[in-house]
Amino acid sequence: MTSALAPEVAVVVPAAVREFCDGRAELRLVGGDVRALLAELGRVHPEVHRRLCDERGDPRLHISVFVNEDHVRALRGLDTELTAGDVVSILPAVSGG
Q1: In the chain, where are the structural domains located?
Q2: 3-state secondary structure of 55
Q3: 30, 33, 40, 97: which could form a disulfide with 6 (CB 3.0–4.6 Å)?
Q4: Would you say residue 3 has pLDDT above 70?
């Protein structure tokens, strides 16, 4: 749940889902932590959220989430707190051979 006190952060959108948010590479959303930010993404851009997150609202297995330059797994996971000016990057896994 977002509140007026939640910080606004930049969210870098993967190229593969930009068509679902008017082609924007970056969104400005509010959220006190990564979990709340993803919920806000689902509220504002449900098609983007559906492609990046599962039915529980967690990032799909092939999706990595970074706050600034740190993977959320190295922090507090989805409970990682956000502050104004943070950049949250949502990146799909890249594979190939």
Answers
A1: 8-92
A2: coil
A3: 30
A4: no
